[in-house]
Amino acid sequence: MQTVDITVTVNGQEYSADVEPRLLLVHFLRDRLDMTGTHVGCDTSSCGACTVLLDGVSVKSCTMFAAQADGREVTTIEGLGSTTSLHPMQEAFWAEHGLQCGYCTPGMIVAAVDLVKRNPDPSDEEIRAGLEGNLCRCTGYQHIVNAVKSGAAAMKANTPRTNVKDAPLEGAPVHELVGGAH
Ligand code: FES
Ligand code: FES
How far apart are CA 123 and CA 30, in angstroms? Predict the structure, then answer.
């Protein structure tokens, strides 16, 4: 079986591996690196559950091969924040009830961070347009828009990160905010 050597920096750490040329980036992240916060919803580029940042720009990791990430930097939901240091966008999704089952949440949050970096003060319409590639099967879209607005404001204000281990977020599926396994 033909393989290729790749080296990818994921969440600040360099990983080298031999992979089949056909291996998708999302499967490399989940199956080889055990980073299961990046979800697979459709495998056909429709749902956005697999969204990660590639060199800082959001991409659907089911639409590219792991070999195409060779020499590049990937940020997954696990790299944005943790339970001891929630990213402002993760905290906003909790505070605004921007998640229900949480399946779409990692992709939504990663895509929202990219959107807000490009447009720090987005309107509701701009958020809806910016996240049109991310689907929520629980259909909680208004809460998601509210969360992105709130997260954008917190990112702009550089709000300090929250440690939810010391101050648990009551009722929130916190593990989904930071990359729960699915
Ligand atoms: S799994 Fe990649 S877009 Fe749905
Ligand atoms: S919260 Fe369930 S799919 Fe979006």
Answer: 34
101 lines ligand 2 (CB under 6 A): yes
Cβ within 8 Å of residue 117, ≥6 positions away: 56
List the domain range (segments joined by +) for residue 154.
Answer: 88-178
Q: Are the C-beta atoms of residues 72 and 64 closer than 8 Å to each other?
A: no
Which helix (H) or strand (E) segment holds residue 125: the answer is: helix 124-130
| Distance from C-alpha of 4 to C-alpha of 66, rounded to nearest angstrom | 10
Half-sphere exposure of 99 (CA within 13 A, CB side): 27
Please tell me whether residues 38 and 96 are part of one structural domain. Answer: no
Q: Is 42 in the pocket of ligand 1 (CB under 6 A)?
A: yes
**Chain CA centroid to CA 5, Å:** 26
DSSP assigned state of 10: E
Contact predicate 75/65, CB 8 Å: no
Give pLDDT tens digits for 2-32.
Answer: 999 999 999 999 999 999 999 999 999 999 9
